[in-house]
Design a protein that fits this description.
Keywords: Signal. The chain has helices at about 1-15, 20-40, 45-50, 55-65, 120-130; strands at about 80-95, 95-110, 145-155, 170-180, 190-195. By secondary structure, the protein is an alpha+beta fold. A five-stranded antiparallel beta sheet has the order 1-2-3-4-5.
Amino acid sequence: MFSTKLNLWILKLLWDWRFAELQFVDNAKQALVLITKFIVEQHEGYIKRCTTPMGYKQIRHDLIGSNASPAKLMVFDKRHIRRAIPLKIQRLQHYDHKFAFIDMIFLACRRTNDFVSKQEMQRMQNLVAQCADTSHIFVPNPIICAEFFVRFRRDYSLPCTVRAGHWLISTYKILRLDVLNTHPEFHVGSGVYDIVDGVQPLHQKATHA
C-alpha cells in the first residue's frame, strides 16, 4: 500500500501535477461501469474507443461472441462498485512516448431485485437460471458479485484532446463472477468464472498493453 501511494505521488510530481488519486479512482469506477456495459451489450465500436489496440484485442478474444454469455449477468451501476483499489503504478518511456500504467482491482455487487422495473428483475432471474449453477442458491433474490482486474494506460507524450492523451483500458479481466446467497465476504456462491490464479486472462493467454 505504501509503495502504491508513493508511486502515485511520483507520477504526480514528475509527469502530471494535476493528477489526483481520489478523482482517478472515481473516474475509474465510471470507466469500469461503461466498458462492462459495452461488453454486456456487445458494442464493439464503443469498446474500441475506450481501449488500447491490445486491450481491444484481449476483450474481443475473451468476451465478445460465444464466450460472452455469463458476462450478461454483469449489469452494474457506479453505486454497485463496493471496492476500487489501485494495486500498481508503472511509468515507462519508450522512444518518444511516456506511458503510465495503473492496475486496479474492483469488486461489484448487485442484488437481482435491485432494478426499477419488473421486466428487468425478471430478465435477471432468467439470466441467473441460464448462466449459473442454481443448485447452490437458496434465496429468492441472490447477489451478482464480480471481481475485475483493469489496467489503465495513458500516453503522456500526447496532449490531452478529445481523441488523445486520456486514460484507456489496456487489460480487462474478470477474476471472479459469482451468484451469491449472501454478502460476498462469506464466499458462498455458484461459480460462473473463478480465475484468481495471479491475474491471468480468462483463456490463459498473455496480453500486453
